[in-house]
Design a protein that fits this description.
Blueprint (H helix, E strand, L loop, with lengths): L9 E4 L3 H12 L2 E9 L2 E8 L2 E6 L14 E3 L2 E3 L8 E4 L4 H10 L3 E10 L2 E7 L5 E7 L1
Parallel strand pairs: 1-4, 7-10
Antiparallel strand pairs: 2-3, 3-4, 5-6, 8-9, 9-10
């Protein structure tokens, strides 16, 4: 391989792309950097959050997206228990439990409450719009 591979984006399909983009702005301080009102029959928004791009688009004509299973907590781990992408994650530099309390006051539901995954590491899962799960990790 002669080229260099770099991460570009995570692509989400949303029941309401504009509302989902606004949720990321309100909850995580994201910024909408591009809006395409009708890209192949659906709105599509690029959202920058935590140094990463989320591409959020609506349902295109003919699509019938299936709803994902909710995140489940098992003994020692959490999972959607489906093949494919399970979640994406952010590192939180600060008091994660306090941040989760702040999110909760804004109406955010935690799919998995903060817990000590291993000594010095606290993590949780946020239930985002459209069945998306976001892992938040605080390491000492």
């Amino acid at each position: 391989m002669n080229g260099v591979l770099g991460f570009d984006h995570v692509h989400l399909i949303s029941r309401d792309a504009r509302a989902a983009a606004q949720w990321y702005c309100d909850m995580f301080g994201a910024e909408v950097t591009r809006v395409q009102e009708d890209l192949r029959g659906a709105p599509q928004l690029d959202v920058q959050v935590g140094g990463m791009t989320l591409v959020i688009r609506g349902r295109r004509p003919g699509e019938q997206p299936a709803t994902t299973r909710p995140m489940q907590h098992f003994e020692g781990f959490s999972s959607h228990e489906e093949w494919g992408t399970d979640h994406f994650g952010f590192t939180y530099r600060g008091d994660l439990r306090a941040f989760c309390d702040e999110l909760g006051s804004k109406g955010v539901r935690m799919a998995v409450e903060p817990w000590e995954f291993k000594p010095g590491m606290v993590l949780c899962y946020v239930a985002a719009p459209d069945g998306v799960s976001i892992e938040l990790i605080q390491e000492a």
